[in-house]
Amino acid sequence: MGTRERRELARATADDFGGALSRERLRRIGVDNRMVRREEAAQRWRVHGRQTIAMHTGELGARADRWRAIWEVGAGIAALDGVTALTEAGMTGFTEHATHVSVLHRHDIEDVPGVRIHKLIRRPEADLLTNGIPRVRPAVAAIHGAHWAVSDRQAALILCMPVQQRLVTGQQLLAARKTVRGRTRRRFIELVIRDIALGAQSLGELDFAEGCRMRGLPEPERQVVRRGVGNKVYLDARWPNGLVVEIDGSGHHQGLSVANDNLRANAVTLTDDTVLRIDLVGWRLFREEFLDQVCAGYWICQHRFGSR
After folding, report:
1. 153 and 208 both lie in a single domain
2. Above 70 in pLDDT, residue 206?
3. Conformation bin of residue 23: beta by default, left when phi > 0, alpha when psi is -120 to 50
């Protein structure tokens, strides 16, 4: 096979990898390091690190850059992980400039520009997906990403987004949590996963009421039943003065739940009650801020109630 034919074969092969190939894959089709040097000197190809060769002279696209991370860290050793694995699985709306990969702790790996390398004590084969680019399963990637996040808020976002985008279920997160353990914010991640998987059931009966008591408010009635349009309406907490607080679980804001929530809130509003909404993850992150609003709402409603 001549040089031109090998060049065209390399370009065709690279299409599956975002326009780049590793030196090892190039060798499989008969392209050795001497030809790589000639193509680079002729400004047809570009070298990105020790192992990655682009079949063009521009910057690497997102997919090729993820393959670069695998090849440069070590094919057969590295796997996309955290938010990078979630993005590869189809998650949108989260921006992360670094590529996250995991390796087992026994490997001695040199730093790679633009790549965050995370060493794990264990990474079971069952956690890996090898069809296409090597990566960990979404449930495991989400938990890892939450541990590696820069803040509790970002950690909660990384856990919620793949569930909202239906890349993973709350039950899968619960199952993965049994074996996946990180070093940071363990309790917080445990609570958020339970919130996502179990919805309002994960918020203890006394948790919200205790917060109200600490602010000097009387304990509300729990799960007051009011009649709505066509069905019964279940309210999480209600005071006699007409203030209602509803706790939204992870299923909210998905599918028809938005319409159902709006119908429920509208039915309550038509009775002159005031409705405040709290999502579970928000309660974990901004508990005091939500309690500030509950207190303000209570005293506003109390003033109206007393003036009737």
Report:
1. no
2. no
3. alpha
